[in-house]
Amino acid sequence: MIRKQIEGSPSEAVVTAVAEALDVDECSLSPLYDTVDPDALNALLRPQRPDDGCVTFSWVGCTVSVDTDEVIVRRDQTAEMEEEINPPSDLTSQRELQERPAEDADSIDVLHIDDDPQFTDLVNDILEQIDPDIEVVTRNSVKEGLLHLESEDIDCVLSDYDMPDMDGLKFLEQMRARGLERPFVLLTGKGSEEIASEAISVGASDYFQKSGSIDQFEILANRIRNLVQKSRSEQRVQDVYEAIDVVDEGIGLIDADGRFVYVNQRYAEILGYDREEMTGRRWTILYEDEEERTVLEQEVFPNVPNMCSDGVWTGQTVKWRKDGSRVRTDHRLAYTRDGMMVCLLSNPTDVSHDYDGPVAEQV
């Protein structure tokens, strides 16, 4: 069961809660409002939430209850759940494929591993007809598949489980051991629930039961696209972290509990720590004196703006380094939309000897 407080639109809270309950991307649910009971949808889309009780309805395999201030989602264990989450024609129609934004229009290169050439030809032809952005390459053994993965840029891997040289799970282990972190979908036969469960536990992105149904292939195409979109988004985030690691400005992120969730190499160097030492610790390690902390909490933090609209707090602060010395830096602070504090440090100056100035000063 998932509970979400309603902080803005009730419909947005519903999508967030249902996506969490089903462990799918919110973007795969938003287009499905036409499958919600019309009366329930009208209630959700009102500017004000209903004061006359709870709205309850079934949607994409879940029972959804919307009260005045929270959403409660219970996942239904029904055989129709997969079809409801991924309605075949609605999400993969040619018109929608043409209307996808440029980011989603990138081709998706899929490697399909199966020792049955007739089955791979069938799957490949159908997937490419359903979604013209999907391009499938076939290899008929694990060995050939690994060689292809190491030499070509592949977005997603489809693999049969039952193959003569190596089963699909061992193939996945070989991939991960070689650092090949592609989305991986295991194809299983009927009655393979235990294998599918094991696949997820060892790191497969998803599993799919082999079927001759066109509807099922449309579900598979949609799964592939969602997995690749998620993988590409995660890679973009990783690229950003790698980029900020090489800048000359110290960058740190502090969560709502006051703990460092990330510092780049320069931030740690300025303060004399290893990065791993700072992650998870509170910002107070940099301000040993209780009076100094009080100045930050009462005079600085309340004046830190939201970076999305109001810019940043700019000033200078004096901090304690790990070795007991003191350093003054230019300091910029701002909150992200979700309450994370971004801290930027530059121009460090050692002030260990006889410093009696303010711990923080806005400029």
UniProtKB/TrEMBL annotation:
InterPro entries in the cross-refs: Bact_response_regulator, CheY-like_superfamily, HalOD1, PAS, PAS-like_dom_sf, Sig_transdc_resp-reg_receiver
Compositionally biased region (Basic and acidic residues): 96-107
CDD domains membership: PAS, REC
Region (Disordered): 76-107
Domain called PAS: residue spans: 233-292
Domain named Response regulatory: residues: 109-225
SUPFAM superfamilies the UniProt entry points to: CheY-like, PYP-like sensor domain (PAS domain)
GO biological process: phosphorelay signal transduction system
Annotated positions of the 4-aspartylphosphate modification: 160
The entry's keywords: Phosphoprotein, Plasmid
Protein name from the UniProt record: Response regulator
Originating organism: Natrinema versiforme
